[in-house]
Design goal:
The complex is a heterotrimer. Chain A is an alpha/beta fold. Helices cover about 35% and strands about 30% of the residues of chain A. Classes of the chains: A alpha/beta, B mainly alpha, C mainly alpha. Chain C: It is a multi-pass membrane protein.
């Protein structure tokens, strides 16, 4: 079932169009990742969906209806969550819970549950001012979940964390996604591949690609040739771009990845070339494009 | 419990934790009792330390109780206002700066509840401080100078509180529209000063001004009677307060939180 | 001088001194318990201790981090 639908969503700040009329929808129960380079308009989009920022134009439907105040359906974790540092973790959650219209008792109960869940039970009486970055992120996750939102929106939930903290948060997200729909932005493609069902790739204020992770990968998958040289072979790599079966050449130092339209003939010709020219190769591998390749292609286009 | 109550209780809790509920009333008490104490000792201080030649008769009329209390209010008008503005300058701006205002508004909280809970918090600390300080000042005046009828104290205190409410509401407004705490304080003080100055220079045309509250306060203290223009000033002040509050809420709605 | 001292209504002066003391102690306690102050902590402690009335006020207004 369609949970949320954005139609022709535009956000303009002064003269710059941060978001240029995007359309997409989110299915209930899915975990959706919003990918894109910095400045693509991810945060702006998420803020509009969370109800914190008014779109310049366009509409957001929630469960098929135009929602007046989206905030009650949505739990939001901003990229840099802030707290009242003089409160204890528990106090903050109870406070936020009451703001989300839980009564005092419910708020207390729910706070305890969530503190347990995000592993902050031992720190619940300590002042938030003394929490580490990872602890704050987990507390942020707890405050977003306090009113059992229909949609959980997370803005770069793991990008500021160290590997350990990142693992913790990703594992928590994996648990949460069993209960609620998640939309999260990231520029770390690995995270998106790991836990999302659907992906949206944004670039320069527009949605470039959307769909389920599997179908997108299927549709855009291309055979790719990875060659690693012992020394640089830039001249040859540049020259092969003129072959009709080569669609793209990416050079990174001694490595090159070549996207081919015709793998069968292409690899023969290239291999022959290498032998003829006596190019010193270390590796010659045939594989498929990854999400990263797709992402790079979208961003560079 | 409504969200407004939750937010107001948070304001109260914060002011207890950061000692505002202790230090601001204490300052008001100390500022309030300084005047009667120094008026009382002035002749003796001069006598003892002034080094006046033997036999000089000091022609220093002892001020009446009402005059002492008027001085107290004029001290509140300067130092009290300064302290209130400085302690309230970050009321919204600091929370916007840290981003925690966004964390609050991401829950389904009406924008008006946020601003009005802040306002109520400011009124609470302002009125409590003024009341305690002024009563202490009255007690010391009665003890050391002469008794002033409590009724006059009460009336003048109420009228004076309207002026202070106006000042903190203005602080809330500038704290909503600007971000730097320092500039909030500076602009508020400047505006308060400008209103007072213009009111006293162009008194004839400014009978409606909120700043006339300080004059009405003096009038009540000295004569026990209210000037007829009080009602006009009272109504315009209330009207201005409402306009300021509504515009604060509207502006706050437009502000981008969580940058 | 003696007359002056005898004439002092101590009942009126003592509360004032006590309030000064409370103000100073509160500011000191707050300053010491605070993890970080705006500016060096030792300087604030000196200011609170040695500048009567103004010192604690300055500390509460600008020295303390309100967050």
């Amino acid at each position: 079932m369609e949970l949320l639908k954005a139609s022709d969503l535009v956000k303009r700040f002064g003269n710059t169009n941060a978001v240029k009329g995007i359309n997409f929808h989110i299915e209930e129960g899915r975990c959706v990742s919003l990918l894109g380079p910095n400045g693509a308009g991810k945060t702006t989009t998420l803020k509009m969906l969370s109800g914190l920022l008014k779109p310049t134009s366009g509409s957001i439907d929630f469960k098929g209806e135009k929602a007046k105040d989206l905030r009650k359906f949505i739990g939001y974790l901003p990229q840099y969550p802030a707290f009242y540092n003089w409160m204890s973790g528990k106090e903050f959650l109870v406070f936020i819970g009451q703001l989300a219209k839980l009564n005092r008792k419910e708020a207390e109960k729910r706070s305890e549950e969530l503190l347990e869940r995000v592993g902050l039970t031992n720190a619940k009486k300590r002042k938030i001012g003394g929490y580490s970055g990872g602890m704050k992120q987990r507390l942020g996750l707890a405050q977003a979940l306090i009113h059992r939102p229909k949609l959980l929106i997370l803005d770069e939930p793991v990008s500021a964390l160290d590997p350990l903290g990142r693992r913790e948060v990703l594992d928590m997200m994996r648990e949460i996604k069993e209960e609620t729909t998640i939309l999260f932005s990231t520029h770390v493609l690995h995270d998106a591949e790991e836990i999302s069902d659907d992906i949206l790739i944004m670039h320069a204020g527009e949605i470039a690609i959307s769909g389920s992770l599997g179908s997108v990968m299927e549709e855009y998958r291309q055979p790719i040739l990875q060659i690693e040289f012992e020394s640089q072979a830039a001249d040859w790599l540049k020259s092969i771009a003129s072959y009709s079966f080569v669609s793209e050449v990416n050079i990174q130092g001694n490595k090159a990845s070549i996207v081919l339209k015709d793998m069968v003939n292409g690899k023969q010709i290239l291999l022959k070339d290498i032998v003829d020219r006596k190019l010193p190769i270390r590796k010659f591998e045939i594989s498929q494009t990854t999400l990263e390749d797709l992402f790079m292609k979208v961003v560079k286009a | 419990m409504t969200q407004w109550t939750v937010l107001y209780r948070k304001e109260m809790m914060e002011m207890v934790r950061n000692y505002k509920f202790l230090w601001i009333p204490i300052i008001f008490i100390l500022l309030g009792v300084m005047q009667p104490v120094s008026s009382y000792y002035m002749p003796e201080i001069l006598d003892t330390f002034g080094g006046l030649p033997e036999g000089t008769i000091l022609e220093m009329p002892t001020p009446t109780g009402a005059e002492v209390l008027m001085k107290v209010l004029s001290i509140y008008g300067m130092l009290g206002v300064l302290i209130l503005v400085l302690s309230a300058m970050g009321v919204v701006s600091a929370e916007r700066q840290s981003g925690v205002a966004g964390m609050v508004m991401i829950k389904p909280v009406p924008y008006s509840s946020y601003i009005l809970s802040k306002w109520a918090g400011l009124l609470t600390i302002t009125l409590i401080s003024l009341f305690i300080g002024y009563v202490a000042s009255w007690y010391y005046t009665s003890l050391l100078i002469e008794t002033v009828a409590f009724e006059r104290i009460f009336q003048s205190g109420v009228i004076y509180s309207i002026w202070l409410v106006f000042v903190v509401t203005l602080t809330l407004f500038f704290s909503t529209i600007m971000k730097g705490n320092g500039s909030v304080a500076f602009v508020t003080i400047f505006v308060v000063f400008a209103i007072s100055t213009v009111t006293s220079i162009l008194g004839k045309y400014m009978k409606w001004s909120p700043a006339t509250m300080t004059e009405h306060t003096g009038q009540v203290l000295l004569s026990g009677e209210l000037n007829s223009s009080f009602l006009l000033a009272f109504i315009t002040t209330i009207a201005i307060l409402i306009v300021i509050l509504i515009s604060s809420i509207q502006i706050f709605k437009q502000k981008e939180l969580l940058e | 001088m003696n007359e002056l001292l005898n004439g002092i209504p101590w009942g009126a002066i003592v509360p004032i001194l006590v309030l000064h003391l409370i103000l100073m102690i509160t500011a000191l306690v707050s300053c010491i318990r605070e993890e970080k102050t705006n500016g060096p902590k030792w300087l604030w402690i000196l200011i609170i201790l040695f500048i009567n009335l103004i010192g604690p006020v300055l500390y509460f207004v600008i020295g303390r981090r309100n967050d």
